[in-house]
Each structure stands twice: as structure tokens, then as C-alpha cells.
Amino acid sequence: MVHFFAFATPRHCSSIPFALIAGLATPLVLLAAPGAIANDFEVCTSRLIEAGIDGSEAAGACGKALHPADLSSCTLDVVGVADVDVEQALLACQSDRRPQELATCVSDIHQSLEIASSTVVLNNCRRSVLPTRFADCVVGVATAATLTPAESMSRCSAAGYRPEDVAPTFIFSR
Q: Which end of the chain has the least Cβ crowding within 10 Å, N or C?
């Protein structure tokens, strides 16, 4: 048994330096990563403040965002193309799970059609599950059928399967 402890001790001792190196390397990686992430939050907040959003509101919006750069880009892109308030654009971009596609939807519709109400376009793009596809539908239908943008948005929003009178999966017995 003494012989067993003699062989076990060097093996345990040799693993200690590797554990220390691994333990020291992890905090160095963690220290480097937050700087890159925090920079995205800083850029988002400063871009929104420059656009006219209150500092605390911009900080809250960027702080809650999963991808803050996408949030600020969406907001600025929508404001640059549509005739909406910065607050409206920020709210729409915050509530959409695909903010870049939302901005593309608003931009595509505004560039292709004559729009009477930018707020209607923004709200319809925000409600769409696939904003880019919705924009393609609106522009295509309006162009081909010579419909107004409001009519084409209504038709593209109503497209799809709506289950009615669906049979239950179980039977009630009374």
C-alpha cells in the first residue's frame, strides 16, 4: 500500500498545474468577451440618443435587446425611410423578433409604392411573421393587380389558412 501512495502522489501533483492554468485562462477569456459585447450596447444607446430618444429610454431599450446593434439599425433605417416618430420606430423594432427584416419590409414597401400612411405600413410589417415575404407580397400584389397599398396589405395579411369549425380531439360525454 505504501507503494500505491508513492505512485498516486506524483500523478495528482502533475494535474495541479494544469488545473491552475485552466482556472486562470477562463477568467482571461471572460474578461475579454464582455468588452466586445458592452461595445454593442454602447453603440446602440449612443445611436438612439443621437436619433432623439431620451437617454434612459435608449439605455433601457438597448439593455433589454438580445442584439442591440440590430435594434438601433432597425430604428434608424425605419426613421430614414418612413414618416414615423423615432419612438414609434423603436417600439416596433423592440417588439419584433426580426428587427432587420422589419426595417427591410418597411423600406421595400416605401421604395416601391406610394404610401399614404407610414404608420400603417410599419404596423403591418411588425405584425407579419415573415416581414420580408410580406413586403414581397404587398409590392407584387399592388403592382400586378393595380391595387392601393392599403388594399394589397389587407390581402397579404389575410392570406393563409384559417382553421374554422375544427373538430375536437376528444369527445365530451354528459
A: C
